[in-house]
Amino acid sequence: MKRAGIGWLLIAVPLTLALLGPLFVPEKQTRSAPFMPLGLLGTDFVGRDAWHQVLAGGQTVVLVALLATAFSYVVGVPYGVIAATARLRVVDELLMRPLDVLLAVPSLLVLILVAAITGHGLAVLVGVVTLVNFPDVARLSRATALEISGRPALEAMRMQGESWWQTSIVYTGRSMLRTLAADLGVRLTAALYLVASASFLGVGVPPDASDWAVMVDRNRGGLFLQPLTVVVPALLIVALSVGVNLVFDRALRKVRT
Amino acid sequence: MAGLSLASYTARRAALGLVQVLAVVTLVFLLVQALPGDAAVALAGDNPDPARIAQIRAVMGLDRPAPERFAEWLIGLPRLDFGVSLVSGRPVAEFLFGGVGPTVVLAALTLVLLLPISVLVGVLAALREGSLLDRALTSVSVALHSIPEFALAVVLIAVFGVQLAWLPPTAVGADLFAQPAVLVLPLVVLLARPICSISRLVRAGMVDALASDYVRHARRLGLGETRIRFAHALPNALAPAVQQVARTTDWLLGGVIVVEAVFVIPGLGTVLVDAVAARDLPVVQGLAVVFAVTTVAVNLLADLVAFRLAPRAEVVA
Fold first, then answer.
1. How far B225 CA lies from chain A's nearest CA (Å)?
2. Do residues A191 and A65 lie in contact, with contact meaning Cβ atoms separated by under 8 Å?
3. Which one of A137, A154, A200, B161 has the lowest number of neighbouring Cβ atoms within 10 Å?
């Protein structure tokens, strides 16, 4: 309980900044020399006010992670359910075997490779993080759906002549919900991790973007002059990922006990 | 799967590994093929002259059909012939050999430190279940587990490298062996995540094992507590942890790329990031193959060790 409280607190600060921060960035931004002690945190590597960058820079991380997690469920759940309920075993194999290959490659490597080939853009980043994350969702959905399809209740429903919609979507879907929800925290942290690491490595976002991870990378040169321009965005990312993890861990415990 | 011998299991598992490697290698080739505009276009410069592009294509052999080039590239791989860099014209293998040293040092040191520390912490927590140490371990590991390496690294550099000036903030121009202090912060960053996950698994496995029927039976037989704990319970507790170690190599490789970038260590990760920035695709291709083969090999090894430790364990293929 205490841990979840800390978790919410840790999430609240970066999330508020990410969602409301962009509203407080002044229209007209003045530029001065890089790494000068101006404003709240000093100026960044091209002389912008680092505090304004912090205010504007949370949106991408949060939005891309949320979107990518949502998409990996949208793709992964039907994928796994189709594999589990396929009449032909070949279909199951055809669907699941390629995922083994994808899981055999380090996720950051897939991310770098695909982004190197397709170029920059937030859509690319969302796509690649989805690609890396959905095999796990698909596997979990397949395992859950397999377990459910063997239940006597479902067998009885089929014999009563319930429609495909009732058996496959309504009953199976509702039964899977809890397992999938329990996994949500892991997926969300994984997505956050990947998005932040990719942006830090300069994959998927323009080099002067207002983004916490990009700020950490670009302002490293001024670590001795204006350490806050690096440490504040880094700490915000740390707070966000630790907070999400603590809150979901707590929720999971509650579900289990 | 009952009664499967180690030899036949090894053969099966190795066959699967080979298929995985082949699939990944094919995938990498196809991905690079899918690139709009090939290497010749990239080399021809800002105002490409079609005749010049055709000439470069002929010289590099890019005008030949893709299956032929794929076959040639594939045959070259076992001989460590990865092709030639587009940017510098040097063989890709030279880049790989140049960068492999620091990366192997980092990865090996991480693994060497990771195993004893996480097993020790996990066992201690399990033996004193519910104690302060146990609860502290759980809290810290849940929190640390999810932090991206670069954020942790930068915060540690700011505190220990810049503010306190205890440790060198980066490894620029340093010899990794002559100045071991350079390695302290990178290793701490690399160890933070895997220690959490593995020690928790060891703890969970050990708690289960100590409550199991065979341990109760061994106690009834009057075996010594030390022998029960370390000769009977621990091997069973380790099997899932070993497989998690293999999955950790995924993180480790990703982590090494990030850590090398943060601490300016000239390893394979730096080579990769530079090659991606310069769009030097043969180098990217070669590195992808090396990383994929390493991951598959480590997974294979871990599955074999886990099978040896607890032969009944059903191993996910």
1. 31
2. yes
3. A154
Judge if ipTM > 0.95.
no
Binning pLDDT at 50, 70 and 90, where does residue A54 land?
confident
Q: Is A203 an 8 Å CB contact of chain B?
A: yes
Kindly state the average pLDDT of the residues B167-182: 69
Tokens representing residue A82 in the block: 């189709």
Comparing alpha-carbon positions, the chain A residue that sits nearest to B254 is: A108
For residue B278, give the 3-state DSSP assignment: coil
What is the model's pTM? Answer: 0.79
Q: Indicate the DSSP class of residue B267.
A: S
Nearest residue to B85 (alpha-carbon basis) of B77, B94, B76: B94
Where do we find the tokens 């060497």?
B112
- Give the Cα separation of B92 and B103 in Å (integer): 17
Of all residues in chain B, the percent with pLDDT exceeding 90 is 0
Q: Are B147 and A238 in contact (CB < 8 Å)?
A: yes
Q: How far is CA B217 from CA B115, B211, B214, B282, in A?
A: 29, 11, 5, 60
Contact B142 A3 (CB under 8 A): yes
CA of A151, closest CA in chain B: separation in Å?
Answer: 23
Judge whether B167 and B189 are in contact, CB under 8 Å: no
User: Are A238 and B157 a contacting pair at CB < 8 A?
Assistant: no
Supply B19's token pair.
């298929």
Q: Give yes or no for a contact between B239 and B205, defined as CB atoms under 8 angstroms apart.
A: yes
- Distance between CA atoms of residues B106 and B94, nearest Å: 20
Tell the residue number behind the tokens 């690491």, with chain if given: A197
The string of pLDDT tens digits covering residues B250-262 is 677 777 888 888 8
Which residue is associated with the tokens 């919410």? A8
The 3 state secondary structure assigned to chain A is: CHHHHHHHHHHHHHHHHHHHHHHHCCCCCCCCCCCCCCCCCCECCCCCEHHHHHHHCHHHHHHHHHHHHHHHHHHHHHHHHHHHHCCCHHHHHHHHHHHHHHHHCCHHHHHHHHHHHHCCCHHHHHHHHHHHHHHHHHHHHHHHHHHHHCCHHHHHHHHCCCCHHHHHHHHHHHHHHHHHHHHHHHHHHHHHHHHHHHHHCCCCCCCCCCCHHHHHHHHHHHCCCCCHHHHHHHHHHHHHHHHHHHHHHHHHHHHHC
Q: Please identify which residue in the block is written with the tokens 């070949």.
A: A90
Q: Do B151 and A237 count as a contact with CB atoms less than 8 A apart? A: yes
Indicate the Cα dihedral angle B155, B156, B158, B164, nearest 10°. Answer: 150
Q: Tell me the three state secondary structure of residue B30.
A: helix
**Nearest of A168, A160, A110, A166 to residue A134 by alpha carbon:** A110
Specify whether the CB–CB gap between B206 and B241 falls below 8 A: no
Q: Which one of B157, B281, B292 has the shortest CB-CB distance to A105?
A: B292
Residues B103-151: tens digit of each pLDDT: 888 888 888 888 888 888 888 887 777 778 778 877 787 777 778 888 8
